[in-house]
Amino acid sequence: MRIAVIAPPWVQIPPPAYGGTEAVLDTLARGLARAGHEVFLYSTGDSTCPVPRGWVFERAIGVGTGGCAAELRHVIAAYDAVADFDIVHDHTLVGSVYADRLPWLPVVTTNHGPFESDLGALYRTTSDRVPVIAISHHQASTARGVHLAGVIHHGVDASRFPIGDGRGGYALFLGRMSPDKGVHIAARVARAAGMPLRIAAKMSEAAERQYFAERVEPLLGAGVDYVGEVGEADKLQLLAGATCLLNPIAWPEPFGMVMIEALATGTPVVATPRGAAPEIVTDGVTGYLAADEEALVAALGKVAALDRRACRRAVEEHFSAERMVAEHVAVYEAVAGARSRSLLGLPRLSAAPGRGPRPPVAARTGRDGDDTSAGVAVSAPRAG
Predict the structure, then answer these.
(1) What's phi and psi for 371, nearest 5 deg?
(2) What is the pLDDT of residues 183-234, one digit of tens each?
(3) Domain holding 231: CATH number?
(4) Which domain holds residue 40?
(5) How far apart are CA 62 and CA 15, in angstroms?
(6) What gap in Å lies between CA 195 and CA 198, rounded to an integer?
């Protein structure tokens, strides 16, 4: 299939540090290409995912710094570039609305956030045209009135994750500096259990800095250390050396990418049973699910005895990139087939007035990487 993946313009693909959605898109694009599909990723010019790419913004805009006008500019250019693909997998919000301007084009989207928010109203309005992939069964259970194309758990390429021995003797918190993620709870629990804690967290937005100053920083010291936001290599090293990932999420998180990344390194997870956590962590096998701080403390006392090989096997069997790719392709084929049947007998429009069908991606790559007719830059794959 000729598959176009449209990423949001906020963070480059793959992310240089924190970025769960962006890491998933990188794995998906690589996996689709490895499976023999023609893949085109529309992201930002500083992305390095090794598939053909297009962009209108040379650099990622940054989370919390761009607005709907910037996302719409990104989406308009993206749809012009991918108007003749077999399927478009759009991960923006504006794209679900904009897709109606290309009625022949099969489009599917993924909701990376909670349906019980403004996102629910958006997808109830647009999902008859652009069906939605849910990322967990828990998330799907809240998608009232939304046309779902399926439920697909995220996956990782386990070969990129070194299996660790956990001999660092510390618990690790990895994620965003937010009360929803329970960073302050992790600090209290680790201290009560007598286990050192390393906090590797994104802290770039004003609300994140305020939360840190008011609720986390007073708990630092005596074995509880904030190590900052970490890049990929440091993240893998921290995960591999940790006794466990301590993930006391305080909200119904739709998935939780960090948990399968920990399991891929053989590191068990101690988490609260919120959102999708019970779909990822098998209690007593790949970690422990504990509903309150007392139970979390008790879990830290016994987690080191779990079999790290079982954690890795869980990823290889249930959260692999190959499984994620295969399930996406099945959805793409179903959505493309449904769009074709719904338009049977109707004339197919061109991408823009006066323009014929667009040539394949390879033919659109100019000498300097510029496709001036489409207003986007197109990059050939880079090594890596």
Answers:
(1) -110, 90
(2) 999 999 999 999 999 999 999 889 999 999 999 999 999 999 999 999 889 9
(3) 3.40.50.2000
(4) 2-155+321-379
(5) 11
(6) 10
